[in-house]
Automatic annotation (TrEMBL):
Homodimer. The keyword Transferase applies. Involved in the synthesis of meso-diaminopimelate (m-DAP or DL-DAP), required for both lysine and peptidoglycan biosynthesis. Catalyzes the direct conversion of tetrahydrodipicolinate to LL-diaminopimelate. One of its GO terms (biological process) is lysine biosynthetic process via diaminopimelate, diaminopimelate-aminotransferase pathway. The gene is dapL_1. It catalyses: (2S,6S)-2,6-diaminopimelate + 2-oxoglutarate = (S)-2,3,4,5-tetrahydrodipicolinate + L-glutamate + H2O + H(+). Substrate binds at residues 15, 42, 109, 132, 187, 292, 388. GO terms for molecular function: L,L-diaminopimelate aminotransferase activity; pyridoxal phosphate binding. This is LL-diaminopimelate aminotransferase. Keywords: Aminotransferase, Pyridoxal phosphate, Transferase. The modification N6-(pyridoxal phosphate)lysine is found at residue 249.
Length: 409
């Protein structure tokens, strides 16, 4: 008899975005003329930059010619892309990386979900609350947690509440933890932390021999000085941190798929005899066994984001979304909402008026002004009473949505 992995049965049935889709579809069925504007799901709307499209076309043509055809590539990515990443995303900020410390992949979702595989099953993990759900769910599937309680929290996970009082910054855990997921700029709160604040985490990890899994998928949206773009800008981080990056939100690759993960050779975890093992060769072993690499045309397209033209075009797209973020923030503040984020991130996290429950606010916003966002409760117990709007819609839809909220909510 085949048995299932019972860890999967611990996961609550309805995933956040399917519940949102269900409610929107139901409402549209009852109100077919409703002109619904979506500021909910974190997908981009602007097309790929012309330099990226050109590079991809050229690479596809190469694949169609016997002289330039390429078969299986290196699972960890082509050096031409890795070198550009090191030069542009890290060396420019004073961070040195070796070519074999960068692993190209098809997504930060994939990597943040899979990286836990190379850690022991009894490790205790800490996550912010609210949190991007993938970190939690992938650890539940692996069996690193207990059951879920009625607040949606799993036994054996240490939740770090991000509240108005602590400026949406996760506090250090009160009990020892082994794996720490941090995400800055943050999804869903849109908040960042300073270098000094991040240093506190690096010091904690060094003292406790923990590993920080740092998700920097929104790094390109940082506008303010002093906000770290990479955890490796922090002294000592090479010993204790892994960093996830993505071309998804940086260059509109959500449908094209390219990302990368940095695993410095110094980062270690320990076996049951307290012997240290570098995570870099373990991740290489994992990827070469289970992953086939990203296709050549996609890696060539990603490399084009680092050409002069590509950089300029990508910058313009990010500026476009950040102008949306500014419009959302300003409009909501003028309408009397308390808002977080939206300054160094494409997410705006608002406090629901009168402590309204976040799913009730979702329904009210959809029914009253036909705007769809994401209820904070979907990101964790401490997301209750908050609501996420994204800056990824078109300018026209962003302006219309905010006007409706300002005038009719
Ligand atoms: N990490 C965070 C915090 C995200 O919000 C997302 C996407 O929404 C991802 C990772 C996934 O990125 P990718 O498209 O590279 O899988």
């Amino acid at each position: 008899m085949a048995r299932v992995n019972e860890n999967y049965l611990k996961l609550p049935g309805s995933y956040l975005f399917s519940e949102i889709a269900r409610r929107v579809n139901q409402y549209k069925k009852e109100n077919p003329d409703a002109d619904i504007i979506r500021l909910g799901i974190g997908d981009v709307t602007q097309p790929l930059a012309p330099a990226v499209v050109e590079a991809m076309k050229k690479a596809v043509a190469e694949m169609g010619s016997p002289d330039t055809f390429r078969g299986y590539g290196p699972e960890q990515g082509y050096e031409f892309l890795i070198e550009q990443i090191i030069e542009n995303d890290f060396r420019s900020r004073g961070v040195e990386l070796a070519v074999d410390e960068v692993f190209i992949s098809d997504g930060a979702k994939t990597d943040t979900a899979n990286f836990q595989e190379i850690f022991g099953i009894n490790n205790i993990l800490a996550v912010s609350d609210p949190v991007y759900p993938v970190y939690v769910d992938s650890n539940v599937m692996a069996g690193r947690t207990g059951m879920v309680n009625d607040k949606g929290q799993f036994e054996k996970i240490v939740y770090l509440p991000c509240t108005e009082e602590n400026g949406m910054k996760p506090p250090l855990p009160r009990t020892r933890v082994d794996m720490i997921y941090l995400c800055f700029p943050n999804n869903p709160t849109g908040m960042t932390i300073s270098k000094e604040e991040l240093k506190v985490w690096v010091d904690y990890a060094r003292e406790n021999r923990s590993v920080i899994l740092f998700d920097a998928a929104y790094e390109a949206y940082i506008r303010e000085e002093g906000v770290p773009h990479s955890i490796f800008e922090i002294e000592g981080a090479r010993e204790v941190a892994v960093e996830f990056r993505s071309f998804s939100k940086t260059a509109g690759f959500t449908g094209t798929r390219c990302a990368y993960t940095i695993v410095p050779k110094e980062v270690k975890a320990y076996d049951s005899n307290d012997q240290a093992h570098s995570l870099n060769p373990m991740w290489l072993r994992r990827q070469t066994t289970k992953f086939n690499g990203v296709s050549y045309p996609v890696q060539a397209a990603a490399a084009a984001t680092f050409t002069e033209e590509g950089k300029k075009q990508v910058r313009e797209i990010i500026d476009y979304y950040m102008e949306n973020a500014r419009i959302i923030r300003k409009g909501l503040e003028e309408a009397g909402y308390k808002v977080f984020g939206g300054v160094n991130a494409p997410y705006i996290w608002l406090k629901t008026p009168g402590n309204m429950r976040s799913w009730d606010f979702f329904d009210k916003l959809m029914r009253q002004v036909h705007v769809v966002g994401t209820p904070g409760a979907g990101f964790g117990a401490h997301g209750e009473g908050y609501f996420r709007l994204t800056a990824f819609a078109t300018r026209a839809n962003t302006e219309r949505a905010i006007e409706r909220i300002r005038t009719r909510m």
